[in-house]
Specification:
The complex is a heterodimer of chains A (about 240) and B (about 425).
Chain A (H helix, E strand, L loop, with lengths): L1 E11 L4 E12 L4 E5 L6 H8 L7 E6 L2 E2 L5 H11 E4 L11 H10 L5 H14 L15 H14 L4 E5 L7 H16 L3 E5 L3 H5 L3 E6 L2 E9 L6 E5 L1
Parallel strand pairs in A: 3-8, 3-9, 6-7, 7-8
Antiparallel strand pairs in A: 1-2, 1-4, 4-5, 9-10, 10-11
Helix pairs in contact in A: 3-4, 3-5, 4-5, 5-6
Chain B lengths: L1 H16 L1 H29 L10 E5 L16 E2 H8 L6 E14 L8 E8 L3 H5 L3 E4 L9 E4 L1 H8 L8 E4 L2 E9 L23 E4 H6 L9 E2 L14 E9 L3 H20 L10 E4 H7 L5 H31 L1 H9 L4 H37 L11 H28 L8
Parallel strand pairs in B: 4-9, 6-8
Antiparallel strand pairs in B: 1-11, 1-12, 2-11, 3-4, 3-7, 3-11, 5-8, 6-9, 7-8, 10-11
The chains are: A alpha/beta (about 240), B alpha+beta (about 425).
């Protein structure tokens, strides 16, 4: 599904070069739920931005769902983002004066779906996150947890190959965070591939696979089975 | 089309959401375009071709008849009665007309009121009407050179006869009855080429057209520049004397006609020279309508300078609007980044910006026309002479809409490019 080999990303200013990622290797298979942890500035977000085609890289190769993304132009990258990737952000990133329908409709518009199909997909997505009855609500009329579920519905609606979540519970209290995590686990059990950046070690342990990034490299790679609260370490490398 | 509608919906939402910002931006552009438009309205009227279908066939005749030997002296556009009569005898031109301007007071002879109306007179010849294509509503031209007959303008007909068919009715001028034989439709040449000399191109329209012989017989005064090299007691006294007051125009449909006419004028000039009248070399001149208007500097150079100033002002307005937009796009980069993240291409963001600029441009066009009209009214209020030179017609409205759209696009272009180039990874968390 996702295959990164020797990825390096260097940010340059006039006087400083920062190696955000160096020789970063990762393969994620279809249906996996991967947690990415690491201290601030370790390169987690850079990895997620590159994985989500929001940022480029300087060296290495990256294949997403069998497509080598090196050298693709903006049209092709945008199409890949639209068709294969669903983003879940820490700040939800909902447009405040769009109702839930219009927020979820946005990526589908760029896909060129008909109005009827978009409506069907939006209703399905809202059904999955349990907010079908609030389709005409504005984000401000929902709690933080509900807003994140709307963001998940937006990510899901286009039936992407992979969900990329950047600290999806970072702005939520523990109860709401648990609800969101349960939703992500449900989606994963239903077949969705998920990569989640998190600071929460409990959440990391609760998913199938955990990678730790320090100084732009994977330093720890643990696989748990089965994913959930009482998971135990099976492999540690 | 579906995406266009979507972008339009988003643009309307943006306009409503950022009312204050867009009010500022649209006002900035609309003031710039409005002032520019008002200026164009004046310059366009001044520089218009008053008779486009034959402006290259109608020529002002200026003869080398001034009786002095200064080689630098300008040709006179006025000629003597005898010169004019000689010109009228030519069988070269398709139409020939000579004229002078006068002013009289008229009243309806059947009216019980003694009130008289001031009227501007064009004392001319029958050739005036076919040469200028003056359109008749009722009747036609007089047929005899000394007829006590008149053609009147639509405006005077409205004033005196309430717009009815007044052909056959009598107008009293200084106690003398004159029969009306023709009434023109509403008609005004802008600029008035046959009266362009002495800054008269935008003066009020003529009310009465009368045979030149009749006007002179009745001593209707010469109301524009005239000169004489001998004492002339009355208007009719000009016959056979050196009184310069008549202007002449000819319609020459072919280059051959023009060549022949030039020869005709030169021969006449040479003939008079041989009789000891003209001391300078023959340099008689035929200028077509547009050459004549240019020669008379009908487009005021001050207006052109003002046009340059308003162009610069418009550029400043575009810069201001652009910097306002730069700030707005900066604050809206979250939404742009989000759209890009969920699959919008750079070109999608650009198209959306174009649709927004179209919407802003249309709003700007409406306000520009309003401001343009307002500025024109203020200008007319301050400088009444502008009134006859300025019109906002359909062409100008279309030009205004075009300029508003283009300025809106120009002001949005750079901010839009900047917005499209914002790195995605920096805008979303």
């Amino acid at each position: 599904m996702l295959n990164m080999k020797n990825i390096s990303r260097i940010y340059r200013s006039d006087t400083i070069q920062t190696h955000a990622l160096r020789d970063f290797n990762l393969e994620v298979k279809e249906g996996e739920f991967v947690a990415v942890t690491g201290p601030s500035g370790s390169g987690k977000s850079t990895f997620l931005n590159i994985a989500g085609l929001l940022d480029g890289f300087d060296q290495g190769s990256y294949e997403l769902d069998g497509v080598n993304i090196q050298g693709l132009n903006d049209d092709n990258l945008s199409r890949l983002r639209n068709e294969k990737i669903g983003f879940i952000f820490q700040n939800y990133n909902l447009i405040p004066d769009f109702n839930l329908f219009d927020n979820i409709d946005m990526p589908l518009r760029y896909r060129g779906f008909s109005a009827a199909k978009r409506k069907h997909l939006i209703n399905d997505a809202l059904e999955q996150v349990g907010l079908a009855s609030r389709v005409n609500y504005l984000p401000s009329q929902l709690s933080g947890g509900q807003q994140q579920r709307v963001a998940i519905a937006r990510a899901l609606a286009g039936e992407p190959k992979i969900l990329l979540a950047d600290e999806p519970t970072g702005n939520l209290d523990s109860l709401m965070a648990r609800q969101v995590m349960e939703l992500l686990h449900t989606l994963n059990e239903a077949g969705s591939t998920i990569i989640m950046v998190t600071h929460d070690p409990d959440q990391a342990r609760a998913v199938g696979r955990n990678i730790q990034v320090i100084d732009g490299q994977i330093t720890d790679h643990s696989v748990y089975a089965p994913a959930h609260e009482n998971a135990s370490i099976v492999v540690k490398s | 089309m579906e995406m266009f509608n979507y972008y339009l919906k988003l643009s309307v939402r943006n306009l409503i959401r950022n009312k204050l910002f867009f009010t500022l931006m649209i006002s900035t552009l609309a003031v710039g375009v409005g002032v520019f438009l008002a200026n164009i309205a004046i310059i366009k009227s001044m520089s218009a071709d008053p008779i486009p279908h034959k402006s290259n066939k109608i020529f002002n005749v200026s003869l080398n008849i001034w009786p002095n030997d200064n080689p630098d002296a300008e040709l006179l556009e006025i000629m003597r009665y005898d010169d004019a009569m000689h010109l009228l005898k030519n069988d070269i031109a398709t139409h020939t007309m000579v004229h002078y301007q006068s002013q009289v007071y008229v009243r309806d002879s059947e009216s019980t009121s003694l009130a008289r109306h001031k009227a501007k007179v064009r004392a001319t010849t029958q050739g005036f009407f076919p040469l200028t294509d003056a359109p008749f509503e009722f009747g036609g031209s007089w047929q005899q050179d000394r007829a006590k007959q008149l053609v009147i303008s639509n405006q005077l007909n409205q004033q005196v006869f309430a717009g009815e068919n007044s052909v056959g009715k009598i107008l009293e001028i200084d106690g003398t009855p004159f029969e009306i034989v023709g009434v023109l439709k509403p008609w005004k040449l802008k600029p008035n080429f046959y009266n362009a000399a002495y800054e008269q191109a935008f003066s009020s329209a003529d009310d009465i057209f009368a045979p030149i012989e009749t006007a002179m017989d009745h001593e209707w005064s010469v109301d524009v520049r005239s000169s004489a090299t001998e004492h002339i007691a009355t208007v009719s006294d000009n016959r056979g004397k050196n009184g310069f007051f008549i202007q002449a125009y000819v319609q020459l449909d072919t280059p051959e006609q023009k060549q022949e006419m030039q020869q005709y004028l030169d021969n006449y000039s040479q003939h008079r020279k041989e009789q000891g009248e003209y001391l300078r070399a023959n340099n008689n001149r035929l200028l077509d309508v547009n050459q004549w208007l240019t020669y008379q500097s009908v487009v005021d150079e001050r207006m052109l300078a003002f046009g340059l100033a308003t162009s610069l002002f418009l550029i400043v307005c575009i810069f201001n609007a652009s910097s306002l937009l730069l700030a707005r796009y900066h604050s809206a980069r979250f939404e742009t980044g989000l759209r890009r993240a969920v699959g919008a291409r750079i070109k999608d963001v650009f198209y959306q910006g174009l649709v927004e600029s179209l919407l802003v441009g249309m709003c700007c066009a409406v306000f520009s026309l309003l401001f343009g009209w307002l500025f024109l009214q203020i200008s007319i209020e301050l400088f009444p002479s502008i009134q006859r030179t300025s019109d906002i017609d359909t062409t100008l409205i279309l030009i205004g809409i075009g300029i508003a759209l283009v300025t809106s696009f120009i002001s949005m272009f750079y901010p839009l490019i900047r917005s499209c180039k914002t790195p995605l990874s920096t805008t979303l968390k």
